[in-house]
Specification:
heterodimer, A: mainly beta, six-stranded antiparallel beta sheet, 3 helices, B: Gyrase A, domain 2, Cyclophilin, four-stranded antiparallel beta sheet, four-stranded mixed beta sheet, CT_A_B (chain A), PxpC (chain A)
Chain lengths: 286, 210
């Protein structure tokens, strides 16, 4: 049996993610890719993979997979901290662990944060679509959301990892998002713009891979009417008619018709990927 | 080009806003020409209704240069036209005929003789917003969107015509259907989208079979 993993417990929402697919937005194809990019790269580094190798991204409840084939596979569980076991025995979180052939690697529910990353030496190699192995939940491109019994092949392992411990970023208790104003800040009242950068919002439980939704004071518009559809960037803070800001994450639509009041720098979005519902959110001028 | 606004969309993107859709299509065509000539190092060029988004912009001085570009008017006859077979039997034909002020059987005739062009994509991979119908043939969206519009549905909304690449909810007015809609989107093919931005399109009435 060739090297791969078989899903034993799929968890709430587990997907395959790499760096995503860029260069296709003009055809309506979202970028997809791991929401916490630094965590994905770190996990890959720890098992000797190229930084862009495909990993599993879990959501709140973790997942469990069995290593198929006879050979052991090096793996690491990072991102949101959780309990990790191999065949029921506790092993280190955030460091490479050797999983024997046939053994089950279980990443438990997140203790802090939302998204866990499971990287395997050799990387996951399902068939790429438009140059990426990422699942895109908006348009359904890429490998499907994991279900029990799914089998995913692994690539050939690279060099033995040279590092075995690295510092993982902590999960912020408060999400501070540096905001570049525009392109449509002129659609909002001065009062709304002041509110946006002074009020405390909270992460809504309706957040997903498309956007981090917020709850808090609604932003009033300075003008009515509809915005003709225009291109959207990662980190765009779009304000739908209910006035509550939505920060676009990796599966965001490529065009949209609600005004974008500002854009959060992409480097701040890893924190957004790990913010549990209820986490306070502050938008600050970049 | 006059009336060009260049807005920042974060630290790495510029949103170029034009006075009308026709100007946006012309500006988009010019951006593609310059990128093909190696003069425009950006990651994504995403046209919209009246805008073009440039994403992955490293050159901060680009905004100033964009404003001073001379852009030739759009040549709508440029490139080979894609022909889409269509059966004009949609459930909203009568509503569209009323909005246009014509008899029901005039709708297919007026639609099929129009030269279309894909202005931009969005909503779903391979869904193009096609322009070409004259302004007085704009139609409103349906007041109540349908929860299920079948793949291949030929639909109108505002100034646009579109063909649904797959089954999805939708609020556009349905005037017909394309047999074999799987041709619209195939990520294993190059190009993946049959109706990418800038593509010329003609709808050819097809015989009803079965």
């Amino acid at each position: 049996m060739s090297a791969g993993i078989e899903v034993v417990r799929a968890g709430a929402l587990t997907t395959v993610q790499d760096e995503g697919r860029t260069g296709w937005a003009h055809l309506g194809v979202p970028r997809a890719g791991a929401l916490d990019g630094p965590a994905r790269r770190l996990a890959n580094r720890l098992v000797g993979n190229a930084p862009d190798a495909a990993v599993l991204e879990t959501t709140l409840t973790g997942c469990a997979v069995r290593v198929t084939g006879n050979r052991p596979v090096w793996a690491v569980v990072g991102g949101a901290p959780c309990r990790v076991t191999v065949d029921g025995r506790p092993v280190a979180w955030g460091s490479p662990v050797r999983v024997p052939g046939g053994a089950v690697l279980d990443a438990g529910p997140a203790v802090h944060g939302v998204r866990g990353y499971l990287a395997f030496a050799g990387g996951l190699v399902p068939e790429p679509v438009l140059g990426s192995r990422s699942a895109d939940l908006l348009s359904g491109l890429g490998p499907p959301v994991l279900r029990e019994g799914h089998v995913l092949p692994l690539g050939r392992p690279g060099d033995t990892p040279g590092v075995d411990t690295v510092p993982w970023p902590g999960v912020p208790a408060e999400l501070v998002l540096p905001l570049h104003r525009g392109p449509r800040d002129d659609w909002f009242t001065d009062r709304a713009l002041r509110t946006l950068t002074t009020a405390v919002y909270r992460v809504s439980e309706r957040s997903n891979r498309i956007g981090l939704r917020t709850e808090g004071p609604a932003l009033g518009r300075a003008r009515g009417g509809e915005l003709p559809s225009e291109g959207m960037v990662l980190g765009a803070v779009q304000v739908p008619p209910d006035g509550l800001p939505v920060v676009f994450l990796n599966d965001h639509p490529t065009t949209g018709g609600y005004p974008v009041v500002g854009v959060v720098a992409a480097s701040a979005l890893a924190g957004a990927a790990q913010a549990v519902p209820g986490t306070p959110v502050r938008f600050v001028d970049a | 080009m006059s009336g060009v606004r260049v807005l920042e969309a974060g630290p790495r993107a510029l949103l170029v806003e034009l006075p009308c859709g026709e100007d946006a299509e012309a500006f988009h065509a010019e951006l593609l020409r310059r990128r093909a000539a190696g003069e425009l190092p950006v990651r994504e060029i995403v046209p919209g209704a009246r805008t073009v988004l440039l994403d992955g912009v490293e050159d901060r001085a680009l905004a100033g240069r964009l404003r001073s570009w001379t852009v030739p008017p759009l040549d709508r006859g440029e490139g080979e036209a894609v022909e889409i077979p269509v059966v004009y039997d949609g459930p909203d034909l009568a509503d569209v005929a009323e909005a246009w002020g014509v008899a029901v059987d005039e709708v297919p005739r007026l639609h099929a003789r129009t030269e279309f062009r894909v202005a931009f994509c969005g909503f779903a991979p391979g869904f193009g917003y096609l322009t070409g119908l004259p302004g007085h043939l704009s139609v409103p969206r349906r007041t109540t969107p349908r929860t299920r519009v079948p793949a291949g549905a030929l639909a109108l909304a505002g100034p646009y015509t579109g063909v649904y690449p797959r089954t999805s909810p939708g609020g556009w007015q349905l005037i017909g259907r394309m047999p074999g809609p799987e041709a619209l989107w195939d990520p294993g093919r190059e190009p993946a989208a049959l109706l990418g931005p800038g593509t010329r399109v003609r709808f050819v009435p097809a015989e009803v079979r079965g």
